[in-house]
Amino acid sequence: MNSARTLGPAIVAGRYKSIWVYMVGPVCGTVAGAWAYNLVRFTDKPLREINKSGSFLRSARIIK
Fold first, then answer.
1. Rounded Cα gap, residues 50 and 41, in angstroms
2. pLDDT tier at 64 (50, 70, 90 boundaries)?
3. How many domains does the chain have?
4. Could you give the CA distance from residue 48 to residue 64 in angstroms, rounded to a whole number?
5. Residue 16 is part of which domain span?
6. Is 0.70 surpassed by the pTM of this model?
């Protein structure tokens, strides 16, 4: 999933059908990462207050 190996040949060949995923994906990942960093770095609350369950793994479980 190297975007450079996908974007270059797609642009040269003129195939723009699904190219938006390779342009939007990294931007969305960067914004989400910056938001998560700011949430953890600049908050005065302990992790237990940010994550009400006290455990990320416990909160990530799918409830059936």
1. 12
2. very low
3. 1
4. 24
5. 3-60
6. no
Task: Write out the two tokens for 57.
Answer: 């793994």
Angle at 4 between CA 37 and CA 21, to 5 degrees: 65
Tens digits of residue pLDDT in 29-52? 999 999 988 887 877 777 667 666
Average pLDDT over residues 1-15: 83
- Paired tokens of 1: 């999933």
How far apart are alpha carbons 7 and 26 in whole angstroms?
A: 13
pLDDT number for residue 31: 95
Written as six digits, the tokens of 6 are 């996908």
CB 29 within 8 A of CB 41: no
Coil, strand or helix at 16 = coil
3-state secondary structure of 22: helix
